Amino acid sequence: MNARTLILPRGRCLNLGGKAVVMGIVNATPDSFYAASRVAGARAAVDVAAAMIAAGAAIVDVGGESTRPGSEYVSSDEESARVVPVIEAIRSRWDVAVSVDTRKASVAAAAIAAGADIVNDVAALGDDPALAALCASSGVPVVLMHKKGIPANMQDAPWYVDCVAEVLEFLLAAANRAIAAGIPADRIVIDPGIGFGKRLEDNLALLVRLDEIAASGYPVLVGLSRKSFIGALGGAGADARLPGSLAAACAARSRGACIFRVHDVAETVQALAVFDAATMGFQPTMKVTT
Is residue 287 situated within a structural domain? Predict the structure, then answer.
């Protein structure tokens, strides 16, 4: 794994070449697939963020529109109303990196003005023509994710000849478009979009061959937490998929992932700290307990 630094606004940066980076999910939504992750109102969302930061989250990802299978678009005004107060409150208290999970330029602009550092776009800058230019002019890094179709229909019989090769081709093309729009290559992160228009066998192929995507040279983010492929393998609902999520995170780590978007920050931080120490020699922060 090559050492990388992700440059953030206001002269800050994230080291992506050392220990695993955990991104905590703050769902300011009423309909995200994992019910326990939903928070109502800015105050509750900030409480969730506070716990994640205390548990070791290096990034807090705030989203105001569910992109679970079958979900519908939320208006820009509604999405902004959900995320902006949360981002403002987090930024007023902590210097943690904040990402906004959105596909809309107007929402991203409001979030960046409120203090967001990263735009995390499940549409890889493909839904809103104005988003790439906004990210370029604002100097924020972008996460480009692969999905097939749109959330409303992406699980309606998805099909690939070679899922890994097709996902990698898509991500490289998306990165090239981002660069052409003025976003520097060192501010691009790629995400294979596990669970987004994928069958069980596709999700597993992406995990097994994730090193092929990491070999692109771009930092790789994975969102595995409590997803349905874990339930398909272990026969568990979303509320009982933590063990499988941790196993998947360690598998992804072994094949080059460096950012992990998760619901369960404390447990993931611990699992990856042990994995890194045991396999890569990164020494975890020592804490003395009595």
Answer: no
Q: What is the pLDDT of residues 77-86, one digit of tens each?
A: 999 999 999 9
Q: Are strands 21-27 and 59-63 parallel, antiparallel or unpaired?
A: parallel
Quick check: is 148 catalytic?
A: no
How does residue 68 score in pLDDT terms, banded at 50, 70 and 90? low
**285 domain-assigned:** no
The C-alpha angle with vertex 20 and arms to 23 and 201, in degrees rounded to 5, equals 80
How many domains, in total, are found in the chain?
A: 1
Contact by Cβ (8 Å): 86, 62: yes
Task: Give the range of the structural domain holding residue 31, as residue numbers without chain letter.
Answer: 19-279
Q: Which of 38, 227, 241, 253 is catalytic?
A: 227
227 an active-site residue?
Answer: yes
- Mean of pLDDT values over 201-227: 96
Within a domain: 122: yes
Is the residue at 6 inside a domain? no
The 10s digit of each residue's pLDDT in 152-184 is 665 666 789 999 999 999 999 999 999 999 999
